[in-house]
Amino acid sequence: MAGNLLVSEEKSVSKGVQQMSIEGDEPPSQYIVKGNTFGSKDSSALIPIPVIDVSLLSSEAELENLRSALSSAGCFQAIGHGMSSSYLEKIREVAKQFFALPEEEKQKYGRAVNESEGYGNDRVVSDKQVLDWSYRLSLRVFPQKVRRLSLWPKNPTDFSEKLEEFSTKVKSMMDYLLRCMARSLNLPEGSFLDQFGEESMMLARFNFYPRCSRPDLVLGVKPHTDRSGITVLLQDKEVEGLQVLIDDNWVSVPTMPDAFVVNLGDQMQIMSNGIFKSIMHRVVTNTEKMRMSLAIFNEPDPGNEIGPAEGLIDESRPRLYRSVKDYGHINYKCYQEGKIPLETLKIADS
Ligand code: OGA
Ligand code: NI
C-alpha cells in the first residue's frame, strides 16, 4: 500500500529495469517486495482457471459457465473468439519488435513526468512505493479523439495499424461479452454495455518483464485489481507469470497460446452489485526468460454515472455500492492515499 501520502512530485529512478536485467544486477531496495500483503499461500494448488468458448455463448450451458466463472474466479481463458493463432502471433511480434529497439529510440515515445501514457517504468508517487520489475508502453486507443499519436511508435512501421486493428476486434469481443454477462444474469442485454456509453475508453498497455536474477525478491506487477470495467490480456505464448488470487491461493494462469485471459475490473464489480468479482492478480518474474503481455482495458465514459444494475438489487441482495462518475479518478486518489477504492463506495449496512 502506498501509505498515507499525497505526493505528486515524481522521483527519478537511476537505472532502468532492462539495463539491470542485462547486467544481471541484484534488484535495488526500491524494487524489493516486503511482506505478503495478500494471499498467504503460495501454492501451485490445482485450482483450474475456467475456459469459456466465446463461439458457444449463444447456448444456455456456456452462459451458465460464464456466470459461474465470473462469480467465483472473476476471470477465464477465452477461446473460440475468432482470431487465428498466426494473427495473435503477429501482434506479439510487433510488440517484441518495439521493445527490442535501442533505449534512445523507445524514449522518443517516453512517458512524461506525472503522466501515465507513453513508454517507461512505474509512475513514482511515493518514497515508500515498491517498484515493478517491468517496463511498459501505455496508449489510449478509444475514443479516437483522445489518441496521442505522437506517442504511437513509428517503428516497427506497422505498429499503429496493428494496434488499431487489434483493439477494434477486441472491442467488439468485449461488447459481445458484456451483453452475454448481462444475459447470464437474466438482465436486459444492455444493462452493462449501455453504462459504458458511446464514448467508452480503451487503453492498451504493452508489458515487458525482463528476467531477474532474484525473482524471489521482486514482482513484475504488484498485487492489484484492475480499475477497468473489463480487461482482455494477450499473454506471452510460452512464458508464464500471471497469478490470480483464488481462495487466498496464488494460482498461476497457464499459457494458452490462442486464448485471451479475460478478467473483470472494479467497475464491473460495481455494476454487477458485487456478484461478479474484480480479481486480485500479480505478475512474478523468472531468471530464465523475458515475458511480454498486452492488456486491453475497457472503461465506461468517465462522464457517465455507473452503478449496480437495477435487476440485481432486491431485498435479499441490497445495493452494495453507490453510483459513481469517473471511477478512474477515485481509484487513483485512493491508491495515493493507501485506501481500497471499492471500499470507499460501499453503502454501510442499514
Ligand atoms: C495489468 C496486468 C498482467 C500481465 O497490466 O494490469 O495485470 O500478465 N498485467 O501482464
Ligand atoms: Ni492488472
From TrEMBL:
Superkingdom of the source species: Eukaryota
Gene Ontology MF terms in the entry: L-ascorbic acid binding; metal ion binding; oxidoreductase activity
SUPFAM superfamilies linked to this entry: Clavaminate synthase-like
Keyword Oxidoreductase: yes
Residues annotated as domain Fe2OG dioxygenase: 197-300
Keyword Iron (UniProt): yes
Keywords from the UniProt entry: Iron, Metal-binding, Oxidoreductase, Vitamin C
InterPro entries: DIOX_N (IPR026992), IPNS-like_FE2OG_OXY (IPR044861), IPNS-like_sf (IPR027443), Oxoglu/Fe-dep_dioxygenase_dom (IPR005123), Plant_2OG-oxidoreductases (IPR050295)
Pfam families: 2OG-FeII_Oxy, DIOX_N
Family: Belongs to the iron/ascorbate-dependent oxidoreductase family.
Cross-referenced PANTHER family: OXOGLUTARATE/IRON-DEPENDENT DIOXYGENASE (PTHR47991)
The protein's name in its UniProt record: Fe2OG dioxygenase domain-containing protein
Species name: Phaseolus vulgaris (Kidney bean)
